[in-house]
């Protein structure tokens, strides 16, 4: 019985990890620093998207500022029409806003994501 529970538990954790890091997406944390607002921090992450890859609906515990480094990335933000951004373009996503992103181009795409978030909370929360 214990062995079955371990196998099932491991499968659930593996499934959660698969949802947390979709195929074709790389996330490289570049820096994480406390800021002058108590209980908040700034985090910068480079996110890479293989052609056709996407990161599903999710939220962050604070604001996200996106700068597209390369490629053509489409962003879907709840309550708004999808927008496609190209290298050099920017986007602001308010705290707690449900959104998704995917590479709609034929080449690799990437963004620099800067988060101003609550310390100690998960950076990404997936939404069904």
Question: What would you say this structure looks like, in words?
Answer:
- There is one protein chain.
- Residues 2-19 have low confidence and may be disordered.
- The protein contains one helix and ten strands, in the order H-E-E-E-E-E-E-E-E-E-E.
- The strands form two sheets. A five-stranded antiparallel beta sheet has the order 1-2-9-4-7, with no helix packed on it. Strands 6-5-8-3-10 form a five-stranded antiparallel beta sheet, with no helix packed on it.
- It is 15% helix and 52% strand.
- It has 128 residues and is mainly beta.
- This is Cupin domain-containing protein.
Question: What's the SSE blueprint?
Answer:
Elements: H1 2-20, E1 25-34, E2 40-49, E3 54-59, E4 62-70, E5 72-77, E6 83-86, E7 90-93, E8 99-103, E9 109-118, E10 125-126
Antiparallel strand pairs: 1-2, 2-9, 3-8, 3-10, 4-7, 4-9, 5-6, 5-8
Pfam families: Cupin_2
Domain Cupin type-2: 46-107
InterPro entries: Cupin_2 (IPR013096), RmlC-like_jellyroll (IPR014710), RmlC_Cupin_sf (IPR011051)
Short description:
The protein is built from one helix and ten strands. 15% of the residues lie in helices and 52% in strands.
């Amino acid at each position: 019985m214990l062995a079955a529970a371990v196998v099932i538990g491991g499968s659930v954790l593996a499934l959660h990890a698969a949802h947390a890091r979709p195929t074709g997406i790389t996330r490289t944390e570049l820096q994480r620093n406390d800021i002058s607002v108590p209980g908040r921090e700034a985090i910068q992450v480079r996110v890479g998207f293989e052609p056709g890859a996407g990161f599903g609906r999710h939220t962050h515990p604070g604001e996200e500022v996106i700068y597209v480094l390369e490629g053509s990335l489409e962003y879907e933000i709840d309550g708004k029409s999808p927008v496609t951004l190209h290298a050099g373009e920017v986007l602001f996503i308010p705290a707690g806003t449900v959104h998704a992103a995917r590479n709609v181009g034929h080449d690799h795409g990437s963004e620099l994501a800067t988060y101003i978030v609550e310390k100690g909370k998960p950076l990404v929360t997936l939404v069904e």
